[in-house]
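Fold tokens
===========
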Amino acid sequence: MDALSGLCPRTMKVADVVDTKLRMVSPWCTVQEAALIMAQASVECVLIKHGSAIVGGVTSKSIVASLASVSVDIRRAKVAELSIEPQWVYGDQPIQDLVDLFVEDGHKLVVVKDREEKVLGTVSETALPRLS
């Protein structure tokens, strides 16, 4: 069953499509380790955390792209080298705000938080086909 079945896109909120299975890694984690974490957890991305701050993220799509580059050894390369700066949105924002971030602004990774600034989850660009 599609994640959006039964939901009206005009009334949907970002929280309706957020992936709440958060996985965090340090900037020194290798790309290979991050890929294994994502595969085991069935998630599309991992967030990079340094201390208490989220400083970036890596998506499955960015890892696949790095595999095409002969200059990247995923066993040695650190996730910080492939890091994407996430865009932040609130879960109660309209779904169209999320679509606009991906389509119009070219963002690859969005971190969703509530109004108390608690991280709820993520949405990566691979979710876009489900939102259209």
User: Anything to note?
Assistant: The chain is about 25% helix and 25% strand. Residues 14-131 form a domain with the CBS-domain fold (CATH 3.10.580.10). Residues 1-6 have pLDDT under 50 and may be disordered. Helices lie at 31-41, 60-67, 79-82, 95-103, 128-131.
